[in-house]
Backbone:
């Protein structure tokens, strides 16, 4: 039976849903010029062929009019049932009765699909119809090489019993090219066919030349290799090779190619398609003469051929494709359901990939054509969501694969996703959905599955966190902003609501949970998702405030930064008129309604003002005041944005230089200080609009020299705002009289104070610098660079001028920037062993001091810091040592009795090559590997000499070589034991596993009597004794003068009766009893 490996490729196609394959356009492709080769085809073929022709005008399509009725062909391709097979893991509608070995008989649906040429008229699959006759223009050796480049055939043909093909320079590519040219068949097809049959590694017994009984025979094309099991397949194929005389690899390549040509290509089955579907009739009838049973083989092999041509850059050559046409071919149009699955046909062709129908986009599986529903599909590395009806979600929230997905409004690309199980709690689901429990019970996995598959669509409550009715009634248009379906509304809550602090039910108010639990606020800030997660994980253990009610305000801890009852009352008179001025009632209103309505509750933030005065915020959060609030407290304060008309953050900073010096670029600190202290301290605060910005800014100059901002920040006010928010931070010039880099570079005291926070230099110039007469123009190079970083003075190992002169790459990366240069030195340069000044060179410091090497290893930064903190004061030298003296201490143990670095590296060149001159690595290798391997590391200690010299040590340690080193270090050296020199004789051991064998065993006698043992083990008494005990006694070997096992057996009839031919028992008996009984044994 022919089993095609290409089935695995098709499996990959089925899994890779996101890769578009197949004609999927919605527009009719109408060429202005009618192509005669296409016009001869039926209408249902033409649209796809025109699409291919438009891309490859040199291709020619040749219609093969079979004259056969479609239903007749389908019937014959299924009868017998084994004529067409598919892998058993294919889609169920394609899989029939099981055949064996992972294959099943194909169903009618499968045959209809793979037989129909119209399903394969795409660039990727059309090469199954390529004419396989020889074409020198398109089938050169380079193309053949591309086909086999990643296989066992990428180079020379492997040697056989007659020929070394490398010696004669014959590659597989050359062989296929020569053979194809000679017999008139495409060499690309021949190479692809062998690759298909033998796979990438080429390890099949059919081409090994070593299969028992068929040594020296080869069958590359697996001709006649069929059978019901592996052995039959191999022997049948090699019988064919033997009968044909394919006793060399080249003979097998030629002979197999000739058979493929004679049996198929030269008999009319001259395409991959026709070699599977025998509808030509030129070879003793139809249907039976097929090269493969695998129904998917033509499409997969055709795709591989296309890839080879593509690699070779030959897709625009003049290919000819022979495409069959049948009578009465089925013709479907529009949507069609089959076995519960939906397909779509356009002019008789099953659509695959993304397709637009009636203004909506759908996606059809690129292999089966099945419409995908509730799925995410990847197209061109971007993900898209197709809802439960198969419609692509654009500008809304979709639900697919157990996740909600936000799909952007232009293309529908997914930009945010969230796991639907994150808002689910099984206990809550059971409580709120008793009807489900009555049917399914309370198993958590069962309830979760119901929620994911049904509950999402049915407006069911998944947990205490969310109620569809509450969410839509409280938040109105914001709740249905991305669709009013159940799945869209809860997706809105899960993706955006939870992120921005919207409460999904009356049972849990996330603002209350945040503002009344200071430890949580300290941990999570405005990361509202974390509050939801914390509450669900801890609600049963902690009795925290989590709802909005009359008593909630008693737990409020965040002060006027977020909610000030006096401000709320002043700014919202309608609320006061309705509820009074009680702080508790006002806070309750803000929690439940005010925050989401954009009402002002603090002097530093007004949601409506913030959105109106920040176009980027308006673009993302128009009408979403909680989103604006989160943005302000998360980003806006850091960016020095004003959140209300009551507070100007830059004006506050410039009016209070003590705060500017204390907070620098820490924007949130200014807002926090103002509401906590500044108001009560009656601090000054002018508005930036009242500040004389002319010292550093001119709108016309700024717009002229910063064209990138004009569109986003139009006019003088826009330019001023950009300069204030971003320009100063980015170091942009605001006029021709102030250059921030000149100002920064000229004054080291300012660099020490402000670092690279450029905005501070502008503000300093306005508030102090100009009045102090400081200069702010000109080209100024830094000469006196800073040396203090994070409070540490690095001047002992670093000098700015020296560093940039020695390392031009650093000077180029950080031009005229001593702060970044120092930061590089500290964070990167020290680890890279860069020299920072002329007084310290880390390699020298490393080489000179073994104690530091032992302490720090290759942690290079530690050497610099040690010199700064201790070494310089201790008088240690930082330069001048070019090589190291190897340490002998490892993990606190001194190995000097058995180890010397120079001896070790000289005697073990492989170690020297691996570790170089690294003494720490050398001794680590010795301790962890060298001792176990018996390597000599000192002229004063040879482990083999030490081991063979002392019987007591061999008895104790055996082959544990490391133990001998440790013994010598701890005892042997002190005992005066000799550890070097050749050992000419040994006192052999006779005890093995506690038994003394000296009564029947003598080491020297055993070796003398058994030369094979001596040849195998030499003077290794442990190994020799082990052999005697485990084998020698069983074999009856003579092992001493005093005992002969055969004599012992014959002279002791009682033993012979007891032990028979079990010779080992006689030795054991003699040791335990016989010798003491005086029995004769020799």
Residues:
């Amino acid at each position: 039976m022919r089993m095609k490996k290409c089935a695995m490729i098709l499996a990959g196609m089925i899994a890779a849903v996101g890769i578009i394959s197949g004609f999927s356009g919605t527009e009719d492709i109408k060429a202005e010029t009618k192509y005669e080769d296409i016009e001869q085809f039926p209408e249902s073929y033409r649209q796809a062929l025109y699409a291919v022709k438009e891309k490859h005008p040199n291709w020619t399509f040749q219609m093969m009019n079979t004259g056969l009725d479609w239903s007749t062909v389908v019937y014959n391709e299924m009868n017998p049932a084994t004529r067409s097979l598919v892998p058993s893991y294919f889609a169920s509608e394609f899989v029939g009765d099981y055949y064996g070995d992972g294959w099943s008989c194909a169903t009618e649906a499968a045959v209809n699909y793979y037989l129909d040429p119209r399903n394969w008229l795409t660039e990727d699959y059309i090469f199954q119809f390529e004419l396989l006759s020889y074409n020198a223009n398109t089938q050169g050796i380079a193309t053949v090489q591309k086909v086999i480049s990643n296989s066992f055939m990428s180079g020379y043909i492997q040697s056989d019993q007659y020929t070394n093909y490398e010696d004669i320079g014959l590659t597989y590519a050359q062989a296929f090219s020569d053979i194809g040219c000679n017999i008139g068949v495409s060499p690309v097809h021949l190479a692809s066919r062998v690759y298909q049959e033998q796979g990438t590694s080429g390890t099949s017994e059919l081409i090994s030349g070593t299969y028992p009984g068929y040594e020296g025979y080869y069958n590359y094309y697996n001709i006649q290799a069929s059978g019901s099991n592996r052995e039959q397949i191999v022997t049948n194929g090699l019988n064919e090779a033997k009968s044909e005389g394919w006793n060399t690899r080249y003979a097998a390549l030629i002979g197999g190619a000739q058979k493929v040509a004679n049996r198929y290509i030269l008999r009319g089955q001259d395409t991959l398609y026709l070699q599977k579907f025998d509808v030509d009739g030129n070879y003793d009838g139809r249907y039976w003469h097929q090269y493969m049973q695998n129904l998917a083989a033509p499409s997969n092999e055709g795709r591989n051929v296309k890839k080879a041509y593509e690699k070779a850059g030959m897709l625009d050559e003049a290919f000819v494709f022979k495409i069959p046409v049948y009578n009465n071919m089925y013709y479907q149009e529009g949507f069609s359901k089959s076995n519960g699955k939906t397909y779509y046909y356009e002019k008789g062709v099953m659509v695959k990939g993304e397709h637009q129908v009636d203004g909506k986009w759908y996606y059809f599986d690129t292999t089966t054509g099945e419409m995908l529903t509730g799925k995410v599909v990847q197209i061109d590395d971007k993900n898209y969501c197709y809802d439960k009806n198969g419609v692509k979600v654009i500008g809304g929230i979709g639900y697919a694969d157990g996740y909600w997905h936000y799909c952007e409004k232009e293309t529908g690309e997914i930009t945010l996703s969230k796991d639907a199980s994150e808002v689910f709690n099984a206990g809550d689901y059971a409580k709120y959905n008793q009807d489900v429990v009555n049917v399914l019970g309370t198993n958590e996995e069962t309830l979760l599955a119901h929620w994911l598959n049904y509950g999402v669509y049915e407006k069911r409550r998944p947990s205490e966190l969310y109620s569809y009715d509450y969410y839509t009634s409280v938040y109105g248009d914001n709740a249905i902003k991305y669709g009013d379906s159940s799945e869209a509304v809860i997706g809105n809550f899960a993706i955006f609501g939870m992120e921005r602090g919207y409460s999904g039910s009356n049972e849990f108010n996330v603002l209350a949970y945040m503002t009344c639990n200071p430890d949580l606020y300290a941990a999570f800030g405005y990361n509202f998702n974390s509050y939801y997660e914390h509450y669900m994980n801890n609600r049963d253990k902690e009795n925290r405030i989590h709802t909005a009610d009359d008593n909630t305000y008693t737990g409020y801890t965040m002060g006027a930064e977020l909610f000030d009852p006096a401000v709320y009352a002043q700014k919202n008179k309608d609320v006061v008129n309705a509820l009074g001025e009680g702080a508790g009632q006002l806070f309750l209103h803000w929690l439940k309604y005010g925050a989401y309505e954009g009402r002002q509750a603090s002097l530093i933030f007004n949601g409506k003002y913030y959105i109106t005065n920040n176009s980027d915020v308006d673009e993302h959060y128009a009408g979403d005041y909680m989103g604006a609030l989160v943005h302000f407290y998360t980003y806006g304060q850091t960016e020095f944005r004003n959140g209300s008309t009551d507070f100007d953050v830059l004006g506050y900073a410039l009016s209070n230089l003590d705060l500017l010096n204390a907070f620098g670029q820490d924007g949130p600190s200014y807002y926090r200080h103002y509401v906590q202290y500044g108001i009560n301290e009656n601090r000054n605060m002018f508005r930036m609009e009242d500040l004389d910005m002319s010292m550093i800014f001119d709108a016309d100059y700024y717009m002229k020299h910063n064209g990138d901002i004009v569109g986003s920040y139009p006019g003088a006010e826009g330019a001023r705002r950009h300069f204030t928010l971003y320009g100063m931070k980015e170091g942009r010039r605001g006029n021709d009289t102030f250059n921030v880099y000149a100002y920064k570079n000229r004054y080291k005291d300012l660099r020490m104070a402000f670092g690279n926070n450029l905005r501070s230099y502008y503000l300093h110039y306005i508030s102090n610098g100009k009045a102090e007469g400081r200069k702010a123009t000109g080209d100024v190079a830094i000469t006196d660079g800073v040396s203090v970083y994070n409070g540490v003075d690095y001047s002992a190992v670093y000098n700015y001028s020296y560093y940039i002169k020695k390392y031009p790459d650093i000077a180029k990366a950080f031009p005229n920037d001593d702060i970044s240069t120092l930061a590089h030195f500290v964070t990167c340069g020290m680890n890279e062993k860069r020299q920072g000044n002329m007084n310290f060179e880390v390699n020298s410091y490393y080489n000179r001091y073994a104690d530091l090497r032992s302490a720090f290893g290759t942690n290079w930064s530690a050497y610099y810091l040690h010199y700064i903190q201790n070494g310089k004061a201790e008088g240690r030298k930082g330069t001048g040592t070019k090589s190291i003296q190897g340490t002998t201490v490892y993990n606190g143990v001194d190995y000097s009795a058995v180890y010397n670095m120079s001896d070790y590296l000289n005697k073990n060149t492989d170690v020297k090559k691996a570790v170089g001159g690294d003494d720490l690595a050398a001794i680590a290798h010795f301790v962890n590997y060298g001792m176990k391997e018996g390597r000599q590391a000192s002229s004063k200690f040879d482990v083999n000499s030490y081991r063979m010299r002392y019987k007591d040590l061999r008895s104790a340690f055996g082959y544990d070589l490391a133990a001998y080193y440790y013994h010598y270090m701890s005892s042997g050296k002190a005992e005066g034991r000799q550890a070097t020199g050749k050992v000419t004789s040994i006192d052999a051991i006779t005890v093995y596993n506690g038994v003394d064998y000296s009564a029947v065993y003598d080491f020297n006698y055993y070796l003398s009597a058994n030369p094979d043992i001596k040849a195998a083990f030499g003077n290794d008494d442990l190994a020799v004794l082990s052999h005697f005990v485990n084998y020698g006694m069983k074999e009856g070997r003579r092992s001493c003068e005093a005992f002969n096992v055969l004599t012992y057996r014959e002279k002791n009839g009682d033993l012979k009766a007891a032990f028979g031919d079990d010779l080992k028992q006689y030795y054991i008996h003699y040791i335990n009893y016989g010798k003491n009984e005086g029995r004769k044994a020799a």
